[in-house]
Amino acid sequence: MAKRVFMPSKDFFKTEEENTDLQFIAKTFAGFEEILAKELKQLGARNVEPKGRSVRFSGDLGFLYKANLGLRSALRILQPIKHFIADSTDMLYDEAKRIQWSDYLSIHDTFSINFTVNSEIFSHGQFAALRLKDALVDYFKENTGKRPSVDKEDADILIDLMIAENQVFISVDSSGDPLYKRGYRKDVGVAPLNETLAAGLMLHTGWKGEVALMDPMCGSGTLLIEATLIALDIPPATFRSDFAFMKWKNYDEELFLKIRESRLDRIRDLRMPVIGFDKRMGMVEKARENIRNAGLDEFIRIEQADFFEHDFSELKKGIMVFNPPYGKKMELPEIEFFSHIGDRLKQHFSGWDAWIISPQEVKSIGLKAEKRLATFNGDIPCNWAKYRMFSGERKAFVQENLGVE
Ligand SMILES: C[S@@+](CC[C@H](N)C(=O)[O-])C[C@H]1O[C@@H](n2cnc3c(N)ncnc32)[C@H](O)[C@@H]1O
């Protein structure tokens, strides 16, 4: 007789904690997966797994609140409901109708569907979303005779539909307004950086306030504000009062308030100067206003100055972060503008580190990049590159510090 072999279930090796875990997906920008995965691990997420433009992780409901409050490089956090394969909109409808929708909403809730479709089978994303809506509505009609309504502007429950070829992912969105909507930025300039992008770039530099920080073309001040929030350990969602999970059936307000309070307690100090410059007075005023809105005016100073003319010699050495202008409205051709920046850095900023975000088509600024992260600013492929300005000859520096020629 064949021996009976004990076959443990997939969950057998999990601890009790992991068995009560919920699965989540945090979305981010291309190139930021590792930055977000690191943030998630530091916050205490389990089973952190970076994928294209997103990171999967698990945790309990309290962790979901913590993640929405504290993640700097995430755009939104989804809770997956169902993943299946469908080769037609009818299959999508059938599978979606089998979901226990009453776990997520009631007939009194309103809902909306956000979709991202990248598929030859589902060439009309709008139609796929419509079939998902039909499935949800028919589920309720058949079970209760009534149906919840769609509200495109201000729905209670936000459903996310993502299709990649024949893979269908249906989730509920726990964030609502994307997490880059921090709430401190009322007035912006011509090309402000997205707050999540700025925060991810700053996390990548590793700056936490140990040396001075300067943005010589600061615009509305986003890089400096996000950097200062990092250094002070202030959660980026401090200024937000609304998250989509607050309308979920399982929303635990007491737990949320407790987590929010404990998160706000952990505030560090910042002793190093944080300074921004812009050549346009209008931008200087906008940046100052945003800094005031974020409650950071005691930490960040903004002045009017032209990077190519101002005497910066009174400043402490530290790191510089740049988001120079690019696009159609440039006074000089882009390549020339960036090589002027390179020249100015070489001649006047020895001892500084500079991080510059520039379009990938700007191949060189005349300095050798020490590190490079490929990402996007809007739809422009960009590099976030680190340049080190040596005092004296680069060769001597390399020999002295690295012991190589
Ligand atoms: C792309 S914007 C920066 C946007 C900023 N990161 C934000 O989030 O708002 C570039 C800024 O560089 C400034 N600028 C351009 N040339 C400059 C110069 N020579 N010196 C100082 N600022 C300059 C512009 O006025 C503009 O505000």
CATH class annotation of the largest domain? Alpha Beta
Compute the gyration radius: what is it? Answer: 25 Å
Mean pLDDT: 90
Return the domain count: 2
Give a quick account of the main beta sheet: strands, pairing sense, barrel closure. 8 strands, mixed
What's the total number of strands? Answer: 15
Helicity, as a percent range: 25-40%
Q: What are the low-pLDDT stretches, counting only 5+ consecutive residues below 50?
A: 1-14
- In whole angstroms, the N-to-C terminal distance is 72 Å
Number of helices: 11
How would you summarize what this structure contains?
The protein has 11 helices and 15 strands. With 405 residues, the protein is an alpha/beta fold.
Keywords:
11 helices; alpha/beta; binds S-adenosylmethionine; 31% helix; 24% strand; 7-stranded mixed beta sheet; 405 residues; Rossmann fold; 2 domains; VC0802-like; disordered N terminus
Helix-strand blueprint:
Layout (H helix, E strand, L loop, with lengths): L15 H4 L2 E6 L5 H11 L2 E6 L2 E6 L1 H10 L5 E10 L3 H9 L12 E9 L6 H20 L4 E2 L6 E8 L2 E7 L21 H11 L6 E4 L6 H11 L20 H13 L8 E5 L2 H13 L6 E5 L13 E5 L11 H15 L4 E7 L9 E9 L2 E9 L5 H9 L3
Parallel strand pairs: 5-6, 5-7, 9-10, 9-12, 10-11, 12-13
Antiparallel strand pairs: 1-3, 1-4, 2-3, 4-8, 7-8, 13-15, 14-15
Helix pairs in contact: 3-8, 4-5, 6-7
The site of S-adenosylmethionine has 21 residues, from α7 and β10.
